[in-house]
Amino acid sequence: MKNLIWTGSALALCFFLGCGGNGAGADKDARATVDLTQVPQSVGCVVIHVQGVSRTVDRAFSAFSGQSSVYTLNGLQSGPATFTGFAYPFGTPCFTPIPAIVAPDYQSDPVAVTLTPGTSTPVTLVLRPVGSASAKCPCELKSG
């Protein structure tokens, strides 16, 4: 009976104080400073997508064309993470989630970093225009 009480007390203590050690991904107090060297013309909103080991975060920020911008993202999961930036035109509501029917005008390449609790990890994103492509099919279409 004493073992059952001890186990229950230990589980309750873990629940209220948190158990899980200091392994990668256990802490969520990492921070990143994301630098966009220059916000492209006609952009009014930037969304920064952070893919961690077990959690994905999207944060939206108002942006000003032609200026460099630095954004701080707090409360991120520590451990490996991949950052990707998306820039939307003026008039797009700047909150997440951005409606799926709105495509970004610019996107960065993914940047992989390791986030450490209690420190600010610098991340630089370079936004590039999102292009479209077309292809011709040298095949013959048959009806029938």
Using the coordinates shown, work out and report the CATH topology: Immunoglobulin-like
CATH superfamily: Carboxypeptidase-like, regulatory domain
- Please, how many helices? 1
Give the N-terminus to C-terminus distance in angstroms. Answer: 80 Å
CATH class: Mainly Beta
- Compressed to H and E, one letter per element, the order equals HEEEEEEEEE
Q: What is Rg?
A: 22 Å
- Summed over residues and divided by their number, the pLDDT gives a mean of 78
Low-confidence stretches: 1-27
Q: Helix and strand layout, with pairings?
A:
Layout: H1 2-17, E1 30-36, E2 43-52, E3 56-62, E4 69-76, E5 79-89, E6 106-108, E7 111-115, E8 120-125, E9 127-129
Parallel strand pairs: 1-8
Antiparallel strand pairs: 1-4, 2-3, 2-5, 5-6, 5-7, 6-9
Structural features, described:
It is a single chain. With 144 residues, the chain is mostly beta strands. The chain has one helix and nine strands. The chain has one domain (21-129): Sandwich (Immunoglobulin-like), CATH 2.60.40.1120. The strands form two sheets. Strands 2, 3, 5, 6, 7 and 9 form a six-stranded antiparallel beta sheet that branches. The longest helix has 16 residues, at 2-17.
